[in-house]
TrEMBL record:
Active site: 261 (nucleophile)
Name of protein: UDP-glucose 6-dehydrogenase
NCBIfam families: NDP-sugDHase
Keyword NAD: yes
Domain UDP-glucose/GDP-mannose dehydrogenase C-terminal per the UniProt entry, residue ranges: 314-422
Positions that bind NAD(+): 31, 36, 87, 122, 264, 328
Keyword Cell membrane appears in the UniProt entry: no
GO molecular function (one): UDP-glucose 6-dehydrogenase activity
SMART domains, per the entry: UDPG_MGDP_dh_C
Length: 439
């Protein structure tokens, strides 16, 4: 088993660290945030993620994982150091590599024995080469340090399962030593391994995320056309899904992709192409479709109503998808301010994202409207004039069509996730608008 250090305890770093420990490795997770480190030491996960806290507690109790701000002690004698720090989007769309560079320099100034540095963060093609050179430039001790790319494919909400049962492990390196070390680390996972060059590994990550984002934008584009020509996107997606070349996943039309990955990675790839004198037209089109789609419900509702002013508006779901408290690039963040500016009185429900949303939009008056947070969907719906569904939480899905009819003042529902059968809503007497389907 290997001695592993992990730099950064976000989704990628913490989940990877916990899963390596679960498979028997000795793991030290490093973060600069002392408060966060103390929280993790007390057995609490700083992020909302299924199964994570249990595995943190188990592996901590069994002595296989520890948390520290002291990177020197963690890096100095590690077999492998995984970098899982953020690469946030910059105003021009490029990825900010400052955090990666900081860790690289710390590694160079600390390691006292041969070690493999593994970049897990999503980084522009060529970054691993630069990280290796950077470390070599600053290396203090006479030791061997190589850098390999090992991109992460976990999705929020299912991160632990995605890591333990990944569809594939990508190992990007031209060095036999590095490849063998990574294979040894992943051996207990018993997963398919794809060994490629570092640059190809970096590109696999971007190409995969961009492909998935494009798939969603494509379905949203087709959905919008379906509405105009009288077809139903869900039937269309079902019919398409039987073709194995298309597959049956990521065909759900809706109000656009959000989260910390697709929006950032599409823009970063577009930027990278531009930097290299190439225009990625498909990706560019996918980004444009997504931008439009985010405010689709607001636009639909605006053309149905004279005004939002003074109306009670139920908002069901705030996070970018179910299973997470993450709001990054969530459609709610675009629609709620538009509604408040129009004088709507919003009653918002989200089972776990409420607190994060409230930090940005405290309860009370904003612009011309007000926002109130409720713990119970019925409190949002009662006497409401209109309801928006932004996230397909199971709590939202469990609301019966009749509940909208019985609770709301006017049963007018705009569903961005197509969670109801149109015929059921019609039968219940609900005026129901969704995406890519005709009422
Ligand atoms: C995504 C990828 O799915 C992961 O494989 C990848 O590792 C991760 O980004 C990353 O790069 O870190 P994530 O952003 O957590 O994971 O969430 P997804 O489940 O992919 O959903 C992204 C967005 O697409 C959500 O807003 C979701 O509502 C939307 N979506 C997804 C659709 O609109 N339609 C679909 O059919 C599927």
């Amino acid at each position: 088993m290997c001695k592993i250090a992990i730099a950064g305890t976000g989704y990628v770093g913490l989940v990877s660290g916990v899963c390596f420990a679960e498979k028997g490795h000795q793991v030290t997770c490093v973060d600069t945030d002392e408060n966060k480190v103390n929280i993790m030491k007390s057995g609490v996960s700083p992020i909302y993620e299924a199964d994570l806290e249990e595995l943190m507690q188990k592996n901590y109790a069994e002595g296989r994982i520890s948390y520290t701000t002291d990177y020197k002690s963690a890096y100095k004698d590690a077999d492998a150091i995984f970098i899982g720090v953020g690469t946030p989007e910059q105003p021009d769309g490029s990825a900010n590599l400052t955090y990666i560079a900081t860790v690289a320099r710390q590694i160079a100034e600390t390691v006292m024995r041969d070690c493999l540095v593994v970049v897990k963060s999503t980084v522009p093609i060529g970054t691993n080469d630069k990280v290796e050179q950077f470390i070599k430039d600053f290396l203090i001790n006479d030791v061997k340090v190589e850098v390999a790319s090992n991109p992460e494919f976990l999705a929020q909400g299912t991160a632990v399962r995605d890591t333990l049962h990944a569809a594939r492990v990508i190992i990007g390196t031209d060095s036999k030593w590095a490849e063998d070390m990574l294979k040894k680390i992943y051996e207990p996972f018993n997963l398919p391994i794809v060994s490629v060059s570092r640059r190809s590994a970096e590109m696999i990550k971007y190409a995969s995320n961009n492909f998935l984002a494009l798939k969603i934008s494509y379905m949203n584009d087709i959905a919008n056309l379906c509405e105009l020509v009288g077809a139903d996107i869900q039937d269309v997606a079902k019919g398409m899904s039987f073709d194995e070349r298309i597959g049956n996943k990521f065909l759900s039309a809706g109000i656009g992709y959000g989260g910390s990955c697709f929006p950032k990675d599409t823009k970063a790839l577009e930027y990278l192409a531009k930097q290299n004198g190439y225009e990625l037209r498909t990706v560019k089109a996918g980004i444009a479709v997504n931008k439009e789609q985010k405010t689709l419900l607001y636009k639909k509702a605006s053309s149905r109503l004279i005004t939002f002013n003074g109306l009670k508006v139920a908002v069901l779901g705030l996070t970018f998808k179910p299973g997470t408290d993450d709001l990054r690039e969530a459609p709610s963040l675009e629609n709620v301010p538009l509604l408040l500016a129009q004088g709507a009185n919003i009653y918002a429900f989200d089972p776990v994202g409420k607190k994060n949303f409230e930090d940005r939009f405290p309860e009370g008056k904003h612009d011309k409207g007000r926002i109130t947070y409720v713990d119970n969907i019925k409190d949002a719906l009662i006497d409401a004039n209109i309801c928006f569904i932004f996230t397909e939480w199971s709590e939202v899905k469990s609301v019966a069509p009749e509940d909208y009819k019985n609770l709301m003042r006017t049963p007018l529902v705009f569903d961005g996730r197509n969670i109801y059968e149109i015929k059921d809503m019609r039968k219940a007497g609900v005026e129901y608008y969704s995406v890519g389907r005709n009422y």
